[in-house]
Amino acid sequence: MRYELYKLFRKRMIIIFLTVGLLWAVASVIVPAFQYETYTEDMEPLRGLSAIKYDRELQNTYAGRLPLDELELLYKEYQDIYSNPNYQRESEISAGKGNPTPLTDEAYWKYLNRFGVISSVAAKTYYSPLYIDDVRKSGDLTELFLGSIVVLPSEDALIPAANPNSPNVLKVIGMYDNLEYPLYGEYYAGWTDFFNSTPFLFKWIVGLLIVVGLAPVFADETSTGCDKLLLTTKYGKSRLIRNKILTALLYSTIVFWAFALTIILSYIGCYGLSGLRASIQLLPHCSLSPYNLSIGGAIGLWGILGWISALAIAAITTFFSAIMTNAFVSVIPALIAYIVPSFSYAELSPTLHRITRLLPVNVIGNIDQVFSMADFYSFFGALVDRKMLIVIVSVVIISVLSVLSAVFFLRKEPSK
């Protein structure tokens, strides 16, 4: 099996793509980190990692799950500063970077910056439950689904009919009953970017690296005529085929975790561990998420779902490699099978669209959508969470296509 793995990683194209992809992943973290700017409360400008460290230590003065009465006092102090007429700037454009408020830069950096965590926690703690109460009364999930399950205007058909007594509505709303308030606050800058960059990186770089890398795993033997020899050897119809399938799964595991660990460790190296314990609702993508999850917990669960999806991509590609005559011919249907489900089919058929959301291309990098909102599928009256179905579908794909890969390669007539 080590030799099979060596054959995959020795290909120049794979080495180049893997190296460029990993460098791009690191650069996507480091470049914004070194461009990060802030000011101390003495109005001393800081840039890069020292600026991140300063903001992290300053805003983490109020880190943790604060008692509600303490949060109220701190939030009132924040609001008093924010609404103080003496701190308002005349120009609509801030002179400095990083000031998103109508306050002067001096007022913002001297008095308001330290309340970054408090403002996020308080806003979500006080206002998010109001959205939930409205949904509970109306039975309309539009506010919850927009930006999470519904991403494009053409996907409005995915929103169920408004009905406060609908099992789906009751299931979703019921999850908020267990949400713990006040939320856990912690400086989380950087992890917002993680949720922004991960979908593209894993969907279009990691996923395609797996497809392109594994297309030759069986097909190369056929194209070179080695299948005729291999299928007549002692272990050609057993151990060799098994090792090729296991090598494909191992290759996808190495590629996925190489990127996952690289980007996670890069963020930790630049921004520290701060934010991993913060409630996921502090992130813009997940502000109305019903899950009692920390940012670190969501990243850990995504790692599991993404890895299983990577294995499923490997199984699909291996299957096409086993039934085709050469690597080029096998990579085409494998790419089609990978890319086509990534499109939106909600306007054509909401059911078809929801089925495609369970497939690997829509899971491997979509950490921003998987945990932003609960998504239940109805099976004979039972409601099943999308994440559970993702695991089931991926395991079925891996199991069935691994077996079929072996069967079809065994039945393939040796090359003349």
Structure description:
The chain is built from 17 helices and four strands. The protein has two domains: 2-32 and 185-411, no CATH class; 36-138, no CATH class. It has helices at 2-9, 12-35, 49-59, 68-83, 105-112, 116-138, 142-145, 167-175, 191-214, 216-224, 226-230, 239-271, 295-323, 327-339, 350-356, 367-370, 386-411; strands at 37-39, 45-47, 376-379, 382-385. Helix 9 (191-214) packs antiparallel against helix 12 (239-271) and helix 10 runs parallel beside helix 13. With 416 residues, the chain is mostly helical. Strands 1-2 form a two-stranded antiparallel sheet. A two-stranded antiparallel ribbon has the order 3-4.
Helix and strand layout, with pairings?
Blueprint lengths: L1 H8 L2 H24 L1 E3 L5 E3 L1 H11 L8 H16 L21 H8 L3 H23 L3 H4 L21 H9 L15 H24 L1 H9 L1 H5 L8 H33 L23 H29 L3 H13 L10 H7 L10 H4 L5 E4 L2 E4 H26 L5
Antiparallel strand pairs: 1-2, 3-4
Helix pairs in contact: 1-12, 2-9, 2-12, 9-12, 9-13, 9-14, 10-13, 10-14, 12-13, 13-14, 13-17
Main attributes of the structure:
mainly alpha, two-stranded antiparallel ribbon, 4 strands
Strand content: under 5%
The radius of gyration over CA amounts to 25 Å
Helices, by number, come to: 17
> How are the strands of the biggest sheet laid out side by side?
1-2
Largest sheet: 2 strands, antiparallel
What's the helix-strand series?
HHEEHHHHHHHHHHHHHHEEH
**How many domains make up the 3D coordinates?**
2
Number of strands: 4
The class by helix and strand makeup works out as: mainly alpha
What is the rounded distance between the termini?
27 Å
* Outline: globular
Low-confidence stretches: none
